[in-house]
Specification:
The chain is α+β, with helices and mostly antiparallel strands. It is built from 10 helices and 10 strands. The longest helix has 22 residues. Keywords: Bacterial flagellum, Cell inner membrane, Cell membrane, Cell projection, Chemotaxis, Cilium, Flagellar rotation, Flagellum, Membrane.
Length: about 325
Amino acid sequence: MEKILTKAEIEALLNAVFEGRIEPEKELAKAEGSAVNYDLFNTEAYRGFVPNLDIVYDGYIRYSRITLSNRLRKSVEIKKVGAKSYKFDDFIQTLPTPVCMAIFKLEPLKGAALLAMDSSMAFAIIDSVLGGTSRTALNPNRLFTNLELKLVEKVVIDILADLEKAWLPLYPAKVNLLRMEMNPRLVTIVPPEYQVVTMMVKVQIEETPGTMIFTVPIMTIEPIRDKLKEGMQFDLMAIDPQWSFRLSSEILDAPLEMSVELGNANISLRELLDLAVGDTIMLDKPSTSELVVKVEGVPKFQGVPGIRHGNKAFQISSILADKGTIK
């Protein structure tokens, strides 16, 4: 049985059409049912939208700034430029020539990832490892020799170790270097039409600027996308999980200056100028009174002086509170 509108319903429908609240064309299209285009390679998962992934690279930058400075014995500054999404074939065509590339794996995630650095940074690393200065003349427009590639590989291993530490609070991935390469045409971490997400960072090795690009396939990150969306354990990324323990250990080994105050005396400038060898200065404390021990200038203990095993010593008799009172 067909549904027939009442007079009141018809009037309400006409008013809605005249007022623009209902568009007849769209309503008819919904009723008829029309096909909707769906691009499998242009969904959220393949547009390079990876929430919070940049936080991983923030952690990497903190670690690697120190690692590279120590390794190269030079001042190194690293800044994040930004993330972009490409089809892998399009990304390969954006790489400069020559380029130094490291293919690595994030175990147990599937697929491989890529680290690319331009020739300026690669030759700056080679120059530093061999003891040169940033003013050493190098030709950045030639291919790398096998020896130069090996020298860069040693630094890349350090870079990947820092990347592994940056991933740890989010996902315990093991970063393993597979091989070094300098010909982009020989690199195929995913099929050409697959999407990858890249992160470019600028590296300044003293006066020499350079660029690194981290490239991870979307298919590699897909299994942990939910963790990225939830922002799981991101609060730990701001601080190394072992930071508190290491800080405590370092503080316990920090050297402190401890001094024992025998007493005080007030003298005039004339008396000071008249002092000679053999003169006696009277202090404001009797020889039998307890002395105060100061740690970094702060009163902490009281005790009595003495001699032990032929050395001057001090025996603590009481511990002072924060305001110098005895506990």
